[in-house]
Backbone:
C-alpha cells in the first residue's frame, strides 16, 4: 500500500522561506523544504503532514482507470477464472456522476463503472466493489448464485460492513 513504508526524509531549512513548506520525492528520499525559523516541533509536525499529503497524492494517481483494469484482471484470475471471458469487462473506469451507487455495470456491453467515492478507500474495499460488479457480468441479479460468487472473496462481509458504515455516516443511502 502507498505510504506504508516510511521513506528517508531530508529536511532542508531555508532562510528565504517565511511560511511556505514544500516537499518532493527524489528517488528513495523525500525532501521537505521548511523555513529556517521553524522549531523542532514544527519541523516534525510539518514533515508528517507533508508525507501524508505526498502519499495521498501518489495514492490517487495510482488509482487510475488502468489500475482498475489491473485489479479486475487479478480478481478474475483469483475468483472467477472458470467463467473465462464472460467475467472480463470491455471497460472499467472511475466515474463522478454516480452518487447513489458504489459501482454499476451493464452486462449487455460489459462495461463497469466505479464511483469516485470509493477511490480513497482501502484496497480491500475497492477490490470488493470491483468483484461485485465483475460477478454481475456473470449473474446480473442479486440472487443466491450471485452472492456465492461474491463470497469467494474472503473480505466480502467485512467490506460490505465498511461500505454500510460510510453510507450511514454520510447520510447517503447507497446501493450496489
Ligand atoms: Zn449488485
Residues:
Amino acid at each position: 500500500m502507498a505510504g506504508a513504508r516510511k521513506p528517508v526524509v531530508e529536511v532542508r531549512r531555508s532562510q528565504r522561506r517565511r511560511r511556505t513548506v514544500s516537499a518532493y520525492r527524489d528517488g528513495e528520499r523525500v525532501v521537505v523544504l521548511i523555513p529556517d525559523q521553524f522549531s523542532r516541533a514544527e519541523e516534525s509536525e510539518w514533515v508528517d503532514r507533508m508525507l501524508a499529503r505526498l502519499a495521498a497524492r501518489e495514492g490517487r494517481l495510482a488509482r487510475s482507470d488502468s489500475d482498475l483494469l489491473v485489479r479486475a484482471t487479478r480478481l478474475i484470475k483469483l475468483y472467477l477464472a472458470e467463467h473465462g471471458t464472460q467475467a472480463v469487462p470491455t471497460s472499467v473506469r472511475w466515474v463522478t456522476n454516480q452518487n447513489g451507487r458504489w459501482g454499476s455495470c451493464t452486462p449487455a456491453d460489459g462495461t463497469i463503472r466505479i464511483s469516485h467515492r470509493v477511490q480513497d478507500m482501502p484496497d480491500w474495499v475497492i477490490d470488493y466493489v470491483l468483484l461485485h460488479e465483475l460477478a454481475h457480468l456473470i449473474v446480473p441479479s442479486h440472487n443466491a448464485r450471485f452472492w456465492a460468487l461474491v463470497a469467494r472473496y474472503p473480505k466480502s462481509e467485512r467490506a460490505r460492513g465498511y461500505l454500510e458504515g460510510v453510507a450511514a455516516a454520510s447520510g447517503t443511502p447507497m446501493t450496489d
